[in-house]
Design brief:
The protein is an alpha/beta fold and about 140 residues long. About 40% of the residues lie in helices and about 30% in strands. A five-stranded mixed beta sheet has the order 3-2-1-4-5, sandwiched between helices.
């Protein structure tokens, strides 16, 4: 199996507000940078979109290490999602799970690979995390005015 590292980040100016995301796909030493933005969104949705876009770029079943500064995504994918599914996409308090559409898409994409989830502290000098942050913020600036 191929080994791939995805470095991802999402950003939002206001929450909600304009947001951007970035994924750096590192496969066998070849890197691709993928970005996008939405005019009205949240930081959590942008964190998730970064990983979704990154996983979509991995076309063959692979061993994928997702490196993100989003504990929301790491905890969601490694722990919370199992309970949400059992409870019909309800939280422990019985409320509907926020961002269900993206959680379902993320789970579908991750199922095609052997994925590990690695949290890194944001804005702490991790070179790829800093690069993904810059790309995500730049994507916001490219939105039409």
């Amino acid at each position: 199996m191929n080994e791939v590292v995805l470095y991802t980040d999402g950003s939002c100016e206001g929450n909600p507000g304009p947001g951007g995301y970035a994924a750096i796909v590192d496969a066998s030493g070849e890197r691709r940078e993928l970005t996008g933005a939405e005019a009205q969104t949240t930081n959590n949705r942008m964190e998730m979109m970064a990983i979704i876009v990154g996983l979509q770029a991995v076309t063959e079943p692979s061993i994928v290490r997702v490196v993100t500064d989003s504990q929301y995504v790491v905890k969601g994918m490694s722990s919370w999602i199992h309970g949400w599914r059992r409870k019909g996409w309800k939280t422990a308090s019985g409320a509907p799970v926020k961002n269900r559409d993206l959680w379902e898409r993320l789970a579908e994409l991750a199922a095609a690979h052997k994925v590990s989830w690695e949290w890194v502290k944001g804005h702490d000098g991790h070179p790829e995390n800093e690069r993904a942050d810059t790309l995500a913020r730049d994507a916001i600036r490219e939105l039409p005015a």
